[in-house]
Design goal:
It is built from 22 helices and six strands. It is mainly α and 543 residues long. The strands form two sheets. It has a four-stranded antiparallel beta sheet with strand order 1-2-3-4. A two-stranded antiparallel ribbon has the order 5-6. The radius of gyration is 35 Å and the shape is elongated. The N and C termini lie far apart (113 Å).
C-alpha cells in the first residue's frame, strides 16, 4: 500500500522534470560570450553567429534577443571593438572606452580591432537584425521594418520565428502580413507535408494574390514528381478560383450600386425639373459642383470653429448644401427661366450660359485645383468580406445616402401640399391654373427642390470623386440619359434607369474600356427609345 501511495508522487515528479526539460529545451538561453566571440571573429564566424541567431530566434528568451540586437547594431555601425578577449560596445565609433559586451562593466579600449563586414557577412547580419526587430520591436513600425528585411531572405528564416512573431503581434494588419509571409515560406519548404499544409492554408484565405501564389507552384518539379502535391495544389487552385470569381462578382454588384446611386442623385432633381417644366437644365452638373463646394465650406468652418467635431462636417453639410443650392436654383428660375418657359431652345441656351458663369465664378474666387477633404472615420477604409471583395465605407455611404434621398423625395412628392401641387401641374398645367394653383410659384419651388437634390449629390460625391470647378460636366450627359430612359418626370423610373445604366457601365468597362462602355450604353438606350419613346415609366398627362 505504501508503494501504491508513492506511485502518484513519483509520477508527478517525473512529469514535472519532463516539463522543465522541455521548457528549457524550447527556450534555451543564448551563449552570450560565444555569440560575441563569433561577431569578433573572421567572416565565417560572423556568418555562423548571425545565422545561428536566426535559426534559434523562435525559441530564445526576449532578453537574449535584445542583447544580440545591441551587439548586431554596434557591429553594423562600427561601434564594436574586439580586444584579445571578449568584445566592447562603444558609444560612438573610435571612442576611447566603452562597456564590456557581456558584463556591461566599463572597459578601456586598447589594442582592439574593429571587425569589417563583407557583402555576405553584411547580408547575414541584416537578416539577424531583422529577426530581432520583428520579435522585440517596441512598436509596429519597428516590427514592420524588421519584417521587410526578412522578406528579402525569407528562405533562410525558420517557421518558428514567423510563428512566434505572428502569435505575439498585436497590430491586426501586421499580424496578417506576417501570416501571409509565413505561408509563402512554408510553400517553399523542403518538407512535402508542410508544403501541402501550406497550400490548404492559402486556399482557406482566397484572394487574387493567393491564386497567383499557388499558380506559380505549377512550375515546381514536385508538381510533376509528387502525385499528392499535385492533387493538393489542383484542389487548392480550384477552391481559390471559385472564391475569387464570387468575390469579383460581388465587387461588380457593389460598384454598380454605388455608381447607380450617384447617377440617381444627379438625375433625381433633373427628373423633377424636366418633367414639370420641360426645361433642359444644362446647369444641373454645376449645381452638383456647388453642393460639393458648400460641403468644403462647412468643413473649413468646422476646422476653424470646432476642430474637435471635424468628423461631423459631412453630416452637417447635408442641410446646408441642399438649402444653398436650392436658393441658387430659385434665383436662377426667378431671374432667367420664368421668361423662357415656352421657348425650349432659349431656356437650354440660358442654362448653358448659367453653367459657364458658375464654373468661371468658382475658378476665379476659389481656384482650379482639386479640393482636399478630411475623410471622417465613417467614410474611410472598409471591411473585407469575401476573397478580394472589400466593402468600402465611402461607397456604402453613397448608397445609403441615395436611398435616404429617394425616400424623402417620395414623401415630399406624395405626402406634402407642395408634392400634390407639383404632381397636379405636371399632369395638366392649364387645368391646375384654372383651379387656382399658383403654377409659377410651383415652378419656382420645384426648380429649387430639383436644384437642392443636385446639391445633395455633391455632398455624396465628396468622399469618392475629385472636387473641382469642372466636375459637373461629367454627370450632365449621364443624368439626361437616365431621365429619358426612366421616363420624363418619373422618380421611380429614374431609379430603375440609374440602376440599369450604372450596372451596364460597370459590367462593360472591364471588357471594352470606359469610353466604349459609355458608347455601348448610349446606343442601347437609343435603340430602346426607338421602340418605347416614353421611357420605362410614363407619367400620366392630360393636355
Amino acid at each position: 500500500m505504501a508503494d501504491l501511495r508513492r506511485f502518484p508522487l513519483r509520477a508527478l515528479l517525473v512529469l514535472g522534470c519532463l516539463a522543465l526539460g522541455a521548457a528549457s529545451a524550447s527556450a534555451a538561453p543564448l551563449d552570450r560570450a560565444a555569440f560575441a566571440a563569433d561577431l569578433c571573429g573572421d567572416g565565417a564566424a560572423q556568418v555562423r553567429g548571425a545565422e545561428g541567431l536566426v535559426q534559434a530566434g523562435g525559441d530564445l528568451p526576449t532578453d537574449d534577443l535584445a542583447f544580440a540586437g545591441r551587439l548586431l547594431g554596434a557591429l553594423a555601425e562600427r561601434r564594436l571593438a574586439c580586444p584579445a578577449d571578449g568584445a566592447v560596445l562603444l558609444d560612438r565609433p573610435g571612442a576611447p572606452e566603452g562597456r564590456d559586451a557581456v558584463t556591461g562593466a566599463p572597459r578601456p579600449v586598447s589594442e582592439t580591432r574593429a571587425p569589417v563586414l563583407g557583402l555576405r557577412q553584411r547580408a547575414a547580419i541584416e537578416t539577424a537584425r531583422g529577426t530581432v526587430a520583428l520579435l522585440t520591436g517596441p512598436d509596429p513600425a519597428a516590427r514592420t521594418a524588421g519584417l521587410a528585411v526578412l522578406e528579402r531572405r525569407i528562405a533562410t528564416v525558420p517557421a518558428a520565428v514567423l510563428d512566434r512573431a505572428r502569435d505575439a503581434e498585436t497590430d491586426a494588419a501586421l499580424k496578417a502580413t506576417i501570416a501571409g509571409l509565413a505561408q509563402a515560406a512554408a510553400l517553399s519548404s523542403p518538407d512535402p507535408a508542410r508544403r501541402r499544409a501550406a497550400i490548404a492554408a492559402v486556399a482557406a484565405s482566397p484572394s487574387g494574390a493567393a491564386q497567383a501564389r499557388l499558380a506559380a507552384l505549377k512550375g515546381d518539379p514536385a508538381y510533376a514528381a509528387d502525385p499528392a502535391f499535385r492533387a493538393a495544389l489542383d484542389a487548392g487552385l480550384a477552391q481559390v478560383a471559385r472564391a475569387v470569381a464570387v468575390g469579383d462578382g460581388l465587387a461588380v454588384v457593389y460598384n454598380g450600386l454605388s455608381f447607380a446611386s450617384i447617377l440617381f442623385m444627379a438625375a433625381a432633381g433633373l427628373a423633377i425639373i424636366f418633367g414639370l417644366m420641360g426645361v433642359i437644365n444644362l446647369a444641373q452638373g454645376e449645381f452638383i459642383m456647388l453642393g460639393a463646394y458648400a460641403t468644403y465650406g462647412v468643413q473649413e468652418a468646422f476646422r476653424r470653429l470646432a476642430p474637435g467635431l471635424l468628423d461631423l462636417y459631412l453630416v452637417a453639410a447635408i442641410p446646408i448644401a441642399f438649402l444653398a443650392v436650392a436658393l441658387v436654383g430659385i434665383v436662377v428660375e426667378a431671374l432667367i427661366l420664368r421668361h423662357l418657359y415656352r421657348r425650349p431652345l432659349m431656356s437650354l441656351l440660358a442654362t448653358w450660359a448659367v453653367s459657364l458663369f458658375l464654373v468661371n465664378l468658382v475658378r476665379v474666387t476659389v481656384g482650379t485645383q482639386n479640393l482636399q477633404f478630411v475623410m471622417p472615420a465613417y467614410v474611410s477604409g472598409g471591411v473585407p468580406l469575401y476573397a478580394d471583395f472589400v466593402m468600402t465605407w465611402n461607397r456604402l455611404f453613397a448608397i445609403g445616402f441615395a436611398a435616404a434621398t429617394l425616400v424623402l423625395t417620395l414623401l415630399i412628392l406624395r405626402r406634402t401640399p407642395l408634392g400634390l401641387d407639383i404632381r397636379a401641374v405636371t399632369q395638366n398645367r392649364d387645368m391646375a391654373a384654372c383651379l387656382g394653383l399658383p403654377t409659377r410659384r410651383v415652378d419656382r419651388l420645384a426648380f429649387g427642390l430639383g436644384s437642392g437634390l443636385a446639391g445633395l449629390a455633391g455632398v455624396a460625391l465628396c468622399p469618392i470623386y475629385s472636387v473641382n470647378p469642372g466636375m459637373g460636366a461629367g454627370f450632365i450627359v449621364d443624368s439626361f440619359m437616365v431621365v429619358v430612359l426612366g421616363g420624363v418626370g418619373s422618380l421611380v423610373g429614374t431609379l430603375v434607369a440609374a440602376l440599369g445604366v450604372g450596372g451596364a457601365n460597370v459590367l462593360i468597362e472591364p471588357i471594352s474600356g470606359a469610353v466604349a462602355a459609355k458608347v455601348i450604353v448610349l446606343v442601347g438606350i437609343i435603340l430602346f427609345l426607338q421602340r418605347r419613346p416614353e421611357g420605362l415609366f410614363a407619367v400620366r398627362r392630360r393636355r
